[in-house]
Design a protein that fits this description.
By secondary structure, this protein is α/β, with parallel strands linked by helices. It has ten helices and twelve strands. It has helices at residues 14-25, 65-80, 101-111, 127-139, 150-155, 176-185, 231-241, 257-266, 297-302, 307-317; strands at 52-55, 84-89, 121-122, 143-146, 193-196, 202-207, 211-216, 221-223, 246-250, 273-277, 280-281, 344-345. Mean pLDDT is 85; it is low at 1-48.
Length: 347
């Protein structure tokens, strides 16, 4: 195996598939806390009945009221439909995952009344599962190396209908000689990114809040040039592993959903039910953030606002009974129809 972790054979050939498998398996250390699949095995094809909902925070910062509200909506919709509720920590990117944040997030979720079924899944410990999925794609000749920098992608010409940031296919059809040259030009410690060779240009999914949504499907990154597995692959593999058939999350992720649905199709997995929740925004209509003041439980506590009072605000924003300060009051209240009321303005 070359030091660049670059496959020398075509991905569709046995030699190419073996080398890709070795490259995938060597990129991340795998811990012991979560169930995982060995590289080369297949990911689950069938979801258990009655399925599950989930919440999957990224430990880059403390959860704010909008994040907590989305988690509550996901929990209520799962529980009211008889589904299990899973918890997953999206800590793939060690550079963004701040020490202690995941533990604080989980403590905040428990403090507002959420519970979950089974063990918490930590994505940083599931490299073999992502390698198995990428290897399945490689066996179908659907994986290729990409050597582009972010700047090159941003400045590259693309079709008029393509959204900003979509990949224009620069490395899709390079000759083997050009691939060899680009591998050698990579800096120390870098490997080529791995991209999906998408088989459609766009895909329509049905969202329970927004209705039919058609989005661009480009050649998404499966593994970054620093060896980190990409979110779009991880979320599809992990939802299948956890039996998730209802995905409730912020509407800012709606545009990436057709890409994930296409990956699921290529891996032989069913699409979950998608529910993209309107975001929490500030008085100016901008997405809620730490800059807007006391918006986390810890910051609110410093101002004298109890967790119970914060829960009451979340319950009210989701249409709960007046004065209710427990998320249990939202059973039978939160529906996909009720979530169509628009963003929550946090004043």
């Amino acid at each position: 195996m070359p030091s660049s972790l670059a496959p020398r054979g075509a991905p569709g050939t046995p030699a190419g598939a073996r080398e890709l498998s070795a490259a995938f398996g060597a990129s991340r250390h795998v811990g012991h806390r979560s169930r995982r699949l060995p590289c080369g095995s297949e990911i689950p094809r069938q979801l258990p009945t009655p399925g599950a909902g989930r919440y999957a925070p990224s430990p880059s910062g403390d959860l704010h009221l909008g994040n907590l509200r989305t988690a509550v909506a996901a929990w209520v919709l799962a529980r009211d439909s008889g589904r299990a509720f899973r918890m997953r920590v999206d800590d793939l990117d060690a550079a963004r995952a701040r020490p202690g944040v995941a533990e604080r997030q989980l403590a905040d979720l428990a403090a507002i009344g959420l519970d979950w079924d089974g063990e918490i899944m930590w994505e940083s410990e599931r490299a073999h599962a992502y390698a198995a999925a990428a290897n399945q794609l490689a066996d179908q000749d659907l994986v290729y190396e990409c050597y582009c920098s972010r700047r090159e992608i941003a400045e590259a010409p693309r079709a008029p209908h393509s959204p900003p940031g979509s990949y224009p296919g620069t490395c899709r059809d390079l000759s083997e000689a050009e691939r060899e040259r680009r591998r050698e030009a990579l800096g120390p410690g870098r490997v080529p990114a791995l991209r999906l060779r998408a088989t459609v240009a766009e895909l329509t999914i049905t969202d329970r809040v927004h209705g039919p949504y058609t989005g661009v499907v480009d050649d998404v990154v499966l593994r970054r040039g620093d060896g980190v597995w990409a979110y779009n692959l991880a979320v599809v593999v992990d939802d299948a592993e956890q039996g998730v058939d209802q995905v409730v999350r912020g509407e800012d992720l709606l545009s990436s959903t057709p890409r994930q649905a296409h990956l699921a199709d290529l891996l032989g997995l069913p699409h979950p039910e998608y529910v993209h929740v309107p975001l929490a925004v500030n008085a100016a209509g901008e997405r809620l953030a730490k800059r807007d003041g006391a918006v986390t439980l810890a910051d609110l506590a410093q101002e004298g606002t109890t967790t119970r009072a914060a829960v009451a605000r979340i319950v009210a924003s989701l249409g709960g009974p007046e004065g209710a300060d427990s998320i249990e009051a939202l059973h039978g209240v939160v529906t996909t129809e009720s979530l169509r009321s628009g963003p929550w303005v946090v004043a």
